[in-house]
Specification:
mainly alpha, 0% strand, 180 residues
Length: 180
């Protein structure tokens, strides 16, 4: 079954493949090696070549623009429910606006002013919400929508949050108008 010639071919195939890998590694090292020597040591008269591209960053002591603190009450006064409806499109994956129509998350009809964790028919609340607050006030909703896991550690909501305060205010205004 295995004669000497077959065994020789198998060994030759492995040696040939190994040789191709060694030559490929040597060729890649030659083509892509920038410094000219190995191990971080440089031959006499050879300069170290910088690798990569420099990334310019602002100096810590420099004049960096500070973000303005925006008053949430002012944002709520100027909130646009129409813009909030567009923001809600991201929420539609898990939440519904019809009363009692729970999905992955509880329905959001009348959520502004509703007690936290009391959506009828929704029993998958994590318990972390109840510890964070009593009622979904606009302020509580703002804090929760900014960083759900930061406001209610242990919440089962996997959404990372809305970073733009205007978007949060618009969304809350839209949710507030759902129950007339």
């Amino acid at each position: 079954m295995f004669d000497t010639m077959t065994f020789t071919k198998i060994i030759g195939g492995f040696c040939g493949a190994f040789l191709v890998f060694l030559l490929g590694g040597w060729a890649a090292e030659t083509v892509y090696h920038v410094g000219g020597s190995h191990g971080g040591e440089h031959a006499e008269g050879e300069e170290e070549v910088a690798r990569g591209f420099p990334i310019e960053v602002a100096e810590e002591g420099g004049e960096a623009e500070e973000e303005e603190e925006v008053d949430f009450a002012t944002l709520m006064e100027n909130a646009d429910a129409g813009a909030g409806e567009r923001v809600f499109s991201a929420c539609r994956a898990c939440h519904q606006l019809e009363e009692g129509a729970n999905a992955v998350g509880p329905y959001l009809y009348g959520v502004v002013g509703r007690d936290i964790g009391t959506a009828d028919g929704y029993g998958s609340y994590s318990g972390a919400l109840s510890e964070a607050g009593d009622v979904w006030t606009p302020e509580n909703l703002n804090a929760f929508l900014e960083n759900p896991r930061g406001w209610a550690p242990g919440t089962s909501m996997s959404y990372n949050g809305l970073s733009d305060p205007e978007d949060r205010a618009n969304l809350i205004a839209y949710l507030d108008q759902t129950d007339d």
